[in-house]
Amino acid sequence: xxxxxxxxxxxxxxxxxxxxxxxxxxxxxxxxxxxxxxxxxxxxxxxxxxxxxxxxxxxxxxxxxxxxxxxxxxxxxxxxxxxxxxxxxxxxxxxxxxxxxxxxxxxxxxxxxxxxxxxxxxxxxxxxxxxxxxxxxxxxxxxxxxxxxxxxxxxxxxxxxxxxxxxxxxxxxxxxxxxxxxxxxxxxxxxxxxxxxxxxxxxxxxxxxxxxxxxxxxxxxxxxxxxxxxxxxxxxxxxxxxxxxxxxxxxxxxxxxxxxxxxxxxxxxxxxxxxxxx
Length: 278
Prior knowledge:
Elements: H1 15-18, E1 41-50, E2 56-68, E3 71-81, E4 88-98, E5 103-114, E6 119-128, E7 133-144, E8 147-157, E9 162-173, E10 177-181, E11 185-188, E12 193-204, E13 207-218, E14 225-238, E15 241-251, E16 256-260, E17 264-267
Antiparallel strand pairs: 1-2, 2-3, 3-4, 4-5, 5-6, 6-7, 7-8, 8-9, 9-10, 9-11, 10-12, 11-12, 12-13, 13-14, 14-15, 15-16, 15-17
């Protein structure tokens, strides 16, 4: 029943955007020729970090740089994070690099693109190199072929294998499925699980689902949905029938939906004009 729920599995593709290795602070000291003092202006700024084997882990390029004490103001920024499986290229019109904290703040037309085709766009982005956390308090949009996820505020911690959209979350799946929740949306890659919180609503031409919380689990090898569960005030509407329960479980291998906790199924007769009676 409701096999279209299986399309939720694509939410987990966000791992490819945030799964890149983050650099180890601090970066190697610049050569003497690049020593600067406050107020210096630099053309074609270049800052890179290397691992213990001498391989480049990330690189930040700026068309111009203005050095102010511990802060370097950059323009026309291109940053690249290297990984054996995925490379991420990040661009922004301007930003700052804090040499003491080893953190980067990017602003204006911030965009990240992975080699797998995933993109992230947001007005601003903060990257803490020491803690390996990327975050924004503004609206962020993650897009891939057939999938768009957006929400207010996003945090990703690659080593912890998790990403979190804070609030006002919307997931659009082609051709015509939309999932919304007040937030947060949590993706736990270690457990292969995505969790939608508060006023979850799945809209699809074949039916609607409402719940307080919804979890989906994935097979780590096939990346196929194995199970979906809904908690709290679960309502499932399809055509002229409506089901209510405290919980609902969808088992992908069998395609069955189980209603748990005082389930009630109501059938509404169609009116003469074809509409479903309230």
